[in-house]
Amino acid sequence: MSITTRALCTLALLFGFSLAGCEGGASCKESCDTNDDCESGLGCFEVIGGKSCLPAECSNCFESGRTCYSDENLSEQAEGEAAMCEFSHCG
């Protein structure tokens, strides 16, 4: 989701509206209660520290008792961008 789309979705949520293509505002590894709390492409999963938004593909790892690994935008996060992650592999 682009920064512009994310901003529009955030504004819509603040004013109580829902827009097609807008999911919740929680980004990678942020806390959540349900999948609807997470940005598009992420799901809400129970992990050691509580529930967190992770790539939806992690469900395949967790269902088979494995760990889910993802790649994050760490350099962009250091510059103030929201955390984003993409599925890497199960381990």
Structure description:
- By secondary structure, the protein is α+β, with helices and mostly antiparallel strands.
- The chain is 25% helix and 25% strand.
- It contains three helices and four strands; from the N terminus they run αββαβαβ.
- The protein has a two-stranded antiparallel ribbon.
- A hairpin with a 2-residue loop joins strand 1 and strand 2.
- The longest helix is centred in the N-terminal third of the chain and has 12 residues, at 3-14.
- The chain is globular.
Topology:
Blueprint lengths: L2 H12 L27 E6 L2 E6 L2 H6 L4 E5 L1 H5 L6 E6 L1
Antiparallel strand pairs: 1-2, 3-4
Low-pLDDT runs: 16-20
Shape: globular
Number of helices: 3
Helix content: 25-40%
Protein structure class: alpha+beta
How do the helices and strands follow one another from N- to C-terminus?
Answer: HEEHEHE
Distance between the amino and carboxyl termini: 27 Å
| Total beta strands | 4
Instruction: Work out the strand percent.
Output: 25-35%
Radius of gyration: 13 Å
Give a quick set of tags describing it.
91 residues, alpha+beta, 25% strand, two-stranded antiparallel ribbon
Give a quick rundown of the structure.
By secondary structure, this protein is an alpha+beta fold.
